[in-house]
Amino acid sequence: MKIERFEDIESWKEARLLVRDVYLPLQNCRDFGFRDQIQRAAISVMANIAEGFDRASNKEFVQFLVIARGSVSEVKSHAYAGMDLGYFDGDTFTCISGRCTKLINLLNGFIRFLRSTDRKG
């Protein structure tokens, strides 16, 4: 499948699901610092994939994917804190953690692919 828009990117689709998985359980969380930090990290994953897609070269795209991967790790780390603090139950933690692992794998594969091919610029 040819990728013509960032919405076609599998890791972006997965990042969109991560945002939902992070946002919904925290709707009533009053720990605004924690909530904002994990939500910003989740949104950052989607945003960096989309922004990198519209850069001029694979090299620039890879830079944004690496940033996105770092944000995924941040979400996963915060998910542990969220579970420890009682903001996430076991199922929610498992869902977020599993999605983060899947996203890291997708991003790593995409980075490898982009490093081995040429694209505009």
List keywords for this structure.
121 residues; 4 helices
Describe the overall structure.
- This protein is mainly α.
- It has one domain: Up-down Bundle (de novo design (two linked rop proteins)).
- The protein is built from 4 helices and no strands.
- The longest helix has 27 residues.
- The mean pLDDT is 95.
The whole-angstrom Rg is 15 Å
**Coarse shape:** elongated
Specify the helix fraction band: over 70%
Strand content: under 5%
Order of helices and strands: HHHH
Q: What is the straight-line distance between the termini?
A: 21 Å
At the fourth level of CATH, the homologous superfamily is 23S rRNA-intervening sequence
Question: How do the helices and strands line up, and which of them pair or pack?
Answer:
Elements: H1 10-23, H2 32-53, H3 58-84, H4 90-115
Helix pairs in contact: 1-2, 1-4, 2-3, 3-4
